[in-house]
Amino acid sequence: MELIPDRVVQGDIERLRGRVDAVTIPALRNGSHDPSYPTTFQISPQQRSIAAALIVRRMGVEAVPTLTCRDCRRDEVSGVSESRKGSLENILVVYGDPFPGENRGVYEFKKSEQLIRGLSQESSRTGVSVGTITNQYAQNRDDEVSRTLRKVEAGAEFVLTNISFEADSILGYRDELLSAGLDVPLLFQVSIPHSRNNLLFVSQHFGIPLSRTVRRRLDHRSSEAGISLAAEAFEDLHREANGVHFSYLRRTRNPVPAYCALLDRLEVGAETLIAPLELGRPVAR
After folding, report:
1. I need a labelling partner for 208 at 20 to 30 A (CA). Which of 115, 138, 190, 193 fits?
2. 159 SS3 class
3. What is the pairing mode between strands 90-94 and 63-68?
4. Which domains are delineated in the chain?
5. DSSP letter at 140?
């Protein structure tokens, strides 16, 4: 599950202990109203993500920090591997959407595979596993499949899809990846919409198509609609992938209450978690 530590407190993380395999932590810039890292505190998005992941890990929950090509310096890569203090086993690499206007961020790494290759060279010494993202909604699916395979060739050891709300949006793309030769674990990302407006905003700004079924489900304006939608997507998908990653679509809110409601509905507890199976066989959560 994705968590932004600034949105949660220690008690929230304790509610997830034993119910999830790990939490992912995005790499975000610090802002003027950031309670943890105000703008006067000089810290990069990747340093912030790793620091937060270390704190979460010490609370007893496995954590996966995120590195983004945006604002990541080449001279920072070796320090990233060292700063994990030997307790973080995985790192997720994303490209990073440019900020609007002139403040788009600095891209010393023009492609994700360049950052992945640098981290992979370090991981041979530190033992960290590097993962990456693939986008099933790309306009040119053939190019996206090829791009994903290049990331794997560069050293990515697992792949996570873009957000999805139902099985039809992702299974065909999964088959294309496997047919093209993908040979590392593939995880599906299922997102919980906060509301209809939240869903439409993300769809319009990030080019994520929505089926009539998904739109209709969120028209009821029920606080449970998004949770029900995610639960049904999980039931349809969890046997088709090597794992499922949950995210909450409205990042300004604490997602833990929604996550716990979803886990309750799925009847997921510590005793129901099953370790990932060997590559090529799906994992049941």
Report:
1. 115
2. strand
3. parallel
4. 1-134 (3.20.20.220), 157-285 (3.20.20.220)
5. S
